[in-house]
Amino acid sequence: MKKLDKKTTYLAGWIVLCLLAALLRIAVPVEQQRSLGLEGANQANLKSASGELTEGRELEFELELPSDTAERIGFFFRANDHEYKEGTLTLLAFDGETQIGRTDMELAGLTEDQFVFVDFSPCPGTLTVRIRCDAVGQGPSVWLNETTVTAGQAYLDGEALDKSLVYNLTYTVQAHPYAMPLLWSAIFMLGGVGVFSVGGFSRRSRLREAALPRRKGNRLRLLAGLGCAVLAVALIFFYLYDTKIRIAQNTTERETVLASDGGTMPVTEETASISQIVRPGQDSLTGLGVRFYVEGGAELTEGSMHAAVTDLTLGETVCETEVGAESFLSGEYVGLLFHESQQGAAEHVYRIDLTFSPELWDSGLALMTSEEGVCVTAYLYFNIFLKKFFFFLFLGAEAFACLFWYLTFVRRAKLTTVFLVTVLSLGLFYNVLLTPQMAPDEAKHIDMAYRYSNELLGYESLGDTACLMRADDAAMEFTSSPSIRNYRNIYYGLFSMVQDDRMVEAEVNSNIEGSFLFYAPAALGMSLARLLGLGTVPMLLLARYLNLTVFALLAWAGMRRLPFGQMTLFVLAVLPVNMQQCTSFSHDALTHGILFFYACLCLEAIYGKERMTGQRMALLELSALFLLYCKSGSYAPLCLLPLLIPAESSGSRRRKWAAAGVLTGIPLLAFLGKQASTVAGIVSTTAATSVVSTGDGSAYLTGYTVGYFLNDPLEFVYMMANTFFDKIGFYLESLVGYQLGWVEIETSMLVVMLFWFLLFLTALDTQERRVIIGGANRFWMAFLCLGSIGMILLGMLFQWTPMGHVSVEGVQGRYFLPLMPVLLAAARPKGILLARRIDRGIAAAAVSGQLLTVMYVIRQVTTV
Fold it and tell me: Which strand (E) or helix (H) includes residue 274?
């Protein structure tokens, strides 16, 4: 009884401590930011605006301010599709008749709908804003709120408007929040109750996972297998070099100097000799190109063009060549490559002289023209670096193949060790093959990570559309589409140090809001690189690799606890799409890592033989809590998985239900605090206030609402059925990674089928070891996974799918990947058994699938 009394005392003290912390948090006032004027307004329901503001007209707005901390107000202006050449838009702020603020904006800068703000000081009781414009004939307007009557009254030329203006007034208030402190206090108290319900923390030694004994015999067979692996890697890279890399390294990067104006100049006797002055403005130059057009049906077989390029700055001929008639292709450039590449040529001026033989006169050959003459491009440099770049990649692949074979088949290391080495090694390849910004939305994730890095380093925030960056980082040249220039940046910048570390204001495009938890590894990697003075490329690659490392450690820690299904987790972790997402700035790395770890903890608690301890309970509680922050709580149904934990694990039925109540109560309370407002917003959204954007963000459309489907439930059934039948193939492909990057890098269906077959094999029991999963447990696990899938589909239906679409848009198969450990455990077949364990063969097959994926990626990105 003494021990029980002592633990009860600890629990009581913990509860008192949680309550005191909540009361202290409530007692201390905090500054909260509030907004006024945007209620109910969004891009989709903006339909009308005030009259156009031109010379002599005035729009006046009066507002009684809710707080004396207001300092700024902005109005949402409509450009009215006019292109303004001159004129000024003026916003004047008044306290009575005393002017307290003014903003003047050149109309030439009003190219699209945007907010225009005016700062004022001191803060008046009633604010009056007078808006004027000296434009003649055509002018801007201010959008009107179609759905909500907001505070304030507007007058146009003295007449009151019957609708409210769309404006944004921000101010702060001192508040004593009580809901969140009490909620978090309840969560922490439940955590203490959960640890207490399983007997508290205990000292115990965990049995170390033993490595399999080395095989002493058949060394020749092992060496032959290693030789085959090395040879396979060599053949893959030789094939890539012979068919892709060798061709790509002889291409050049181009930059248009004189762009086509759509016209042509036929080659005739009068145009038999042409001269063109060119100022490329490029520091590095290997040649110039002239663009030609061949009329349809024309066949050029005879004649030639004599071409010469003279560097007028140096006074020497840098290129002189004869171009045969068969070299002219319609719409393509004819390259005039210099005898030697030039550096420091940014200020040089060149003359191109072209002379056509009589056979080409009136033959259908024409020069494509520009506003200054003919159409010209500059060849900047050859891509010779690709040979060395992929040679080093080849050496890395061979080293990894040898290391994997040694650990897996010679040393026979623990599968968890093989897993960790495999994931971290593959991450090195993905880090340089799928370069920064090539993963979906990675540019926005980079912006978010950079903002958090600035906070860690003490730099001020510049708002939602701007961010302080090192000058080198602001000038980064990575693209979201595959390009050889991306690899050039990696090759020449891998070991670079920062050259210009001045902090400059850079425009950012980040509409992604994420907790610091999901950006912590990348932000810490960025901060470390900046403190060490590393250049942009090593900073980005280090941050991405830290993201992968955290995922690998979480999955490894979970894998060590699994009572079965280790190879299922192995294959899921090395799926191409998972490696892509985890080796990027995406918060999928933490999302997948947390959910894999949580699933492993639950399966250990349900099917493991050891009794639940306070340490394991605390890990489950933390994982369940973090679960609610993944993908806006879409995986919340999984928090009910602990209901399957047997009573024997906790010691009694009473303790079992207490522990299960805690493990479900903590995430549900967190969901209430974190996502309740989101759910309420979705439920209360009407057709007038619903808005979704197109995939590229170029347009805003009306979306579906809960009310729409309540009025017509059958339409919802049709929507879900259409989604299943239309998208199931895409989901199965994208869960593996048939198309990588922004679905621009196509691999092969062979890769997809291979990984699905491996996942099937990992779900099979062996004759000597069978996992008994009851029918009720299978049903419950499958039901929870389907619930999470349903939440994902509903979220994208109401927040992404435009009205009129017959299936849910925006969902990708990778969203379902974190559910797979639980779903495949529920789907383990009973009637199909393996004669023996083939875990290491499955691991080798998965790595082979990754090598195939790497081959297809290189084929795609080096296509010229």
Answer: strand 273-278
Distance of CA 257 to the CA centre of its chain: 34
The residues, any chain, with a CB within 8 Å of residue 333's CB and separated by 6 or more, are: 254, 289, 290, 291, 292, 377
Three-state SS at 286:
strand
Q: What is the pLDDT of residues 477-518, one digit of tens each?
A: 898 888 888 999 999 999 999 999 999 988 886 556 678 889
Q: Report whether 517 contacts 626 (CB < 8 A).
A: yes
- How does pLDDT run across 252-291, given as a tens digit for each residue? 888 999 999 999 999 999 999 999 999 999 988 999 999 9
CA 269 to each of CA 273, 359, 361, 715: distance values in angstroms, whole numbers, following the listed order: 8, 10, 6, 70
Prior bond of 122 cis (ω within 30°): yes
Q: What is the 3-state secondary structure (H, E, C) of 155-172?
A: EECCEECCCEECEEEEEE
Cβ atoms within 10 A of the Cβ of 805, count? 17
Q: Are strands 692-693 and 503-507 parallel, antiparallel or unpaired?
A: unpaired
Residues 6+ apart with CB under 8 A from 790: none
To which residue do tokens 């393996």 refer?
834
212-to-137, 224, 413 alpha-carbon distances in Å: 85, 21, 7
CB 712 within 8 A of CB 705: no
Tokens coding 560: 């060590």
**What's the CA gap between 630 and 554, in Å, rounded?**
15
Burial level of 381, CB count in 10 A (0-12/13-18/19+)? middle
d(CA 265, CA 372): 13
Confirm if 396 and 265 have CB atoms less than 8 A apart: no
Q: Are 64 and 169 in contact (CB under 8 A)?
A: no
How many whole angstroms separate alpha carbon 304 and alpha carbon 132?
65
The dihedral of CA 390, 394, 399, 401: what is its sign? positive
